[in-house]
Amino acid sequence: MPTNMTRETDVDVLIIGAGPAGLFASNALARAGVNVKVIDKRPVKIAAGQADGIQPRTIEVLQSYGLADRLLKEGTQLHLASLSCSMGVQAFYNPSPKGGIELTERTPDTMAPTARYPFEVTLHQGAIESLFLDSMSEHDVRVARPYVPTSIELSNNEAELKDPQARPVKVVLKNLAPLDNEPDTEIVRAKFVIGADGAHSWVRKALGITMEGEQTDYIWGVVDMIPETNFPDIRNKSAVHSENGSCMIIPREGDGVRFYIQLSEKDGGVDLATGRVDKSRIGPRKILEVARKTIAPYTIETPESFEWWTIYIIGQRVASKFSVDERIFIVGDACHTHSPKAGQGMNASMNDSHNLVWKMAHVLRGWADISLLKTYELERQKYANDLIDFDREFAKKFSDKPKTEGSEDGVSHEEFKKTFQKFGLFSSGIGVHYAPSSVVSPTYQSAASGLPIGQRVLPQMFLRAADGRPFEIQDVLPSDTRFKVLVFTGDTSDPEQLLKVNDVAEGLKRVLQLYAPGRDVVKMFDVLTFSAAVKERVMYNAVPPLLRAHWTKVFTDDMDTVGKLAGGGYEYYGIDKKEGAVVVVRPDGYVGTAAPLSHVSDLEGYFAGFMTKAKVHAALNGINGTNGIN
Amino acid sequence: MPTNMTRETDVDVLIIGAGPAGLFASNALARAGVNVKVIDKRPVKIAAGQADGIQPRTIEVLQSYGLADRLLKEGTQLHLASLSCSMGVQAFYNPSPKGGIELTERTPDTMAPTARYPFEVTLHQGAIESLFLDSMSEHDVRVARPYVPTSIELSNNEAELKDPQARPVKVVLKNLAPLDNEPDTEIVRAKFVIGADGAHSWVRKALGITMEGEQTDYIWGVVDMIPETNFPDIRNKSAVHSENGSCMIIPREGDGVRFYIQLSEKDGGVDLATGRVDKSRIGPRKILEVARKTIAPYTIETPESFEWWTIYIIGQRVASKFSVDERIFIVGDACHTHSPKAGQGMNASMNDSHNLVWKMAHVLRGWADISLLKTYELERQKYANDLIDFDREFAKKFSDKPKTEGSEDGVSHEEFKKTFQKFGLFSSGIGVHYAPSSVVSPTYQSAASGLPIGQRVLPQMFLRAADGRPFEIQDVLPSDTRFKVLVFTGDTSDPEQLLKVNDVAEGLKRVLQLYAPGRDVVKMFDVLTFSAAVKERVMYNAVPPLLRAHWTKVFTDDMDTVGKLAGGGYEYYGIDKKEGAVVVVRPDGYVGTAAPLSHVSDLEGYFAGFMTKAKVHAALNGINGTNGIN
Questions:
Q1: Which residues of chain B have pLDDT under 50?
Q2: Residues 519-578, chain B: which have Cβ within 8 Å of A?
Q3: Three-state secondary structure readout of A349-395
Q4: For strand A461-464 and strand A554-556, is the pairing parallel, antiparallel, or unpaired?
Q5: In 3-state terms, what secondary structure has residue A522?
Q6: Core-most of A190, A350, B8, B68, by most CB within 10 Å?
Q7: DSSP structure string for B372-391
Q8: What is the DSSP secondary-structure string of B46-114?
């Protein structure tokens, strides 16, 4: 039996909660060489059910961490018209004049034409978590479980709060199942804490952060099962809007399918006195019974077993703030809750962490001022508010009765579809556009007019100059915490242009060396060159050394041999081949700023807004954990 | 110390030699559930050097066994103009009027437009072998080493030779390093033996099979190294033809490069008395010295170490026969030797095994008559002869002096390039066209005029009907030893066409059940449906059950959402949307035969040519090791 022992631990970052948001952050920080500790109250990770939709932008983000291959292999891909509308609905069913429902439309139009992965993926949350757990374990980071926090304190010493190397947060943890001779209490002193502990976040409550918004009265049931049915769109994401209720059908791994079914109070499942859901009052068979009426005349057998099921009432709320003194942060469901049907939850959560971790790594290394962390709330709270607005409109339309001959004031198919389509770009994640801030400076937007500053870098294929191999630009911008400096040189096979490029390299070197520790530019910046020379004439080794730290760093904008993949990048990005451009991409893949080649020295102003000059951080004991990428 | 003990072992197939050809066969047979034993004389597998070029068709073949992902990840891809010519040369350098060499041309035209992977991959032989070794180990098959065969005997009992379940081959093996108490001699009785023991094949010699053709007097040196050079095409496959000799540059994994350098007798390396190469007379530094003169004015530093090197004289020979009584076979270098520069060796070798293994599996299971195995020599010996013809012309042009002002009778760049291009389709592997035989029946070629019978199935994307996900057709035709029956139904959303399809399914079922063990069609045949309905109207569950053993088996010929990948398949394959077609694809991915829907019953004649009717093999103790694919 354990006695009352206490352990004391110092960490850089403590992460509370090992769901998708917490594990995303743990993995990204571990890869960046940051000393991280992650705890979770569950004794083991979840095995089935829960969130499962991965949107196109999230696939791009996971790919930037090298995790998309496995996701795509294990998950189910929803294609057809997956980007035509908000939730990638592929088939719409509505009341038929003959009674029951009928296929109104499959939607082939594309609303998010720039998506690199023009589809959505479903994979259960446990499998998504495994992606991160396996990747983290390569860096020897594992989840400590079952642990709960019992107190959290933040120092009010100004000097300490300003010093990124100080550990101003003290968290007391309780080990719920200590082994013999293992302490049941652990005191953790952390530089930063991330609360990723879900909708009922202990961290949020301990800090007194309020949730703003309200509970709806929409009740939904969810069942995961392998269906025996003659419904022809069972392998498409389908929205069924019938006179007997609404449901959504979402294909899953293997032969599995998830049904989201709208329930009414009479179906049970809600304690009418408290307004809370009560799983003892209903079961998956009952929920499926409701679905059966909705999809008639199509039939569906009751399976021998259900893989997972739940019921819920939609809450639509956003936290009043996302951080305390840029030392304690909340991410994921801890700061926004909304309808799970929209398939946004896990995506928004992981993208919160994606936004936060590189900033934290830069501050920890002494490369950036701690104020950089203010941009996390700025960027992600606005996103969460937009998400709730979207969800509110969406949930209402979905719950309303359809318009039929007998119910003229119902929602028509056209209105319904319009709502779905309205938020197409938004819900695919590819429309995210961060507002101007210290890390988003659109002054010279015209230098690359097709590459919106504040948005993620648009997918585009370029040829590697040395060997003509086509590369997706996103794949040469991995999430390795380095800023990427993309030098669009124009045609380097033109001797006059090459002279200009030599000058640009000098100017750029001067700027980057101001910030790079030990003047070692590649540690902090990945400089990539994009020539406009044709592949028959481009010489990768003609550009100045700063622009080719390795032969793999030089690309050219020309068609590949097959002529289908690459070419036209300058035009697509709105870059003039004479003027050229330097485009700075943040470590999370969003365009930070740009300048024409002639104004390369103006980039100093951008970096000065949040970076620490090299001589300053030379004095600090910063971490240096960049992963060199070749 | 081991005593003279003897072990006796019964196996279905004994494979002698664990190079690429032997391991390919081992892995494919192991996956097919065949009892296989593989031995090699080397105590450990090779680590570096040797063969390393993987051609486009071979990538397709490896993909059909699920091995291409890793190949593409680990290997170096040669793009640019990799299909423009015989060896995928990307850059040609020739004598410059200013002295030294200069870039004459990079070749952007494509000669093999149908390649699914329009590039070549280099990866050292040891890594290729690991692909197979790791895959085999999943089926608990490992290489026994170091073992050599000491005798081989084939029974002359006619009845035994005809019975596929008999073990008429007796091979005595010697264990060169037996552990304590392990026998040093093993007597193996096998149904079949595959000799994959290289250019100096013991199996071939033991059987008295002669090699036809001759030794050339071209001497070549090879060095693998990481170069420090200013040669601008060092990351492209380059052919340098200078007044000081010829060389080829082939990029390899990481920063590595292989140089093939033509040597003259005065450079050393050959014992002039015997005409044999002698590695004690030359070294990699000396070989590089010759290369240095060839590529001047470009420079190259001598590295601290070389990864691998060798010298050789080209021999161009083909074995007089490839099998003895369809019981003992030789594959790979054991039956054909040629210039390694052409990068064909490993490809031809693996494709020999690919051709042989499914036939062997069918005979072992009692599904096919043993005479099916005669088609191995028929198909692969012809290929080998074509390969030698190609190599002869190629090697000569490469070794000849270039045409310059001072040497008007030399080979001009145009002639040189023409030779390279002439065999483009051939050397990429995608032009292989097997002649009519019991397994290649082009009677109804007109039913699918764009899909040549005897060639591999042309890559084309189709949408999966149930969920609109695009699939490359080659990916739904895995090398699982089953025949694939592709039913091109026409537009199944047209009720009249659907009626016709119902009849076709009845006729097809009758034919397939004649051969399928236990009338279980899917064990032996994978029936796949390709509708011509638009994705908005296709209903995967409208086609008769034989045509949809699972929802994943129905496809449709329409554009994907992005509109770039799929669509136009009927037109490309030359199939009329009313007439439709049934296309039978051999287990190795080559089109076996075809028929219009109206003549589906004629397929009986094709299968009758080599298959055993179900009641016959019901009486046999056949293996049943098909891997069900969903």
A1: 1-2, 81-87, 109-110, 618-630
A2: 535-536, 539-542, 551, 560-562, 564
A3: HHHHHHHHHHHHHHHHCCCECHHHHHHHHHHHHHHHHHHHHHHHHHH
A4: antiparallel
A5: helix
A6: A350
A7: GGHHHHHHHHHHHHHHHHHH
A8: --S-S--EE-HHHHHHHHHTT-HHHHHHHSEEE-TTTTSSTT---EEEEE-TTSSEEEEEE----S-TT
CB B263 within 8 A of CB B220: yes
3-state SS class at A74: helix
Tell me the pLDDT tens digit for each residue of A448-473: 999 999 999 999 999 999 998 899 99
User: What strands, in cross-sheet order, belong to the sheet with A53-54?
Assistant: A53-54, A120-122, A76-78
Beta bridge partners of A190: A11, A169
Classify A585 as helix, strand or coil: strand
Round the CA-based radius of gyration of chain A to a whole number and report it. 26
| Residues A316-341: b if buried by 16+ CB within 10 A, e if exposed | bbbbebbbbebbbbbbbbbbbbbbbb
Kindly name the residue from A40, A52, A558, A576 that is annotated as catalytic.
A52
Chains A, B: CB contacts within 8 A come to: 112
ipTM at complex level? 0.82
Report helix, strand or coil for B492. coil
Look up residue A279 and give its DSSP letter.
G
Chain A residues whose beta carbon lies within 8 Å of the beta carbon of residue B90 = 467-468
Token pair listed for B339: 């210039």
CA–CA separation, B379 and B375 (whole Å): 6
Contacts (Cβ under 8 Å, ≥6 apart) of A300: A227, A228, A229, A231, A288, A291, A292
Beta bridge partners of A239: A92, A248
> Over chain A, what is the mean pLDDT?
88
The pTM assigned to this predicted structure is 0.87
- CB–CB of B127/B74 below 8 Å? yes
Mutate to test the interface with A, among B238, B463, B561 (most CBs of A within 10 A): B561
CA A562/CA A547 separation, integer angstroms: 28
Is the sign of the CA dihedral A488, A494, A498, A504 positive or negative? negative
Checking phi first, is residue B219 left (phi over 0); if not, alpha (psi -120 to 50) or beta? beta
Band of pLDDT at residue A115, cut at 50, 70 and 90: confident
A118: closest chain B residue by CA: B562
User: Each residue of B334-378: pLDDT tens digit?
Assistant: 999 876 655 677 899 999 999 999 999 999 999 999 999 999 999
- pLDDT band of residue A244 (cuts 50, 70, 90) is confident
Nearest to A340 by CA among A408, A280, A397, A261: A261
Pick the residue of B469, B552, B559 with the most A CBs within 10 A to test the interface with A by mutation. Answer: B469
Residue A371 has pLDDT above 90, yes or no: yes
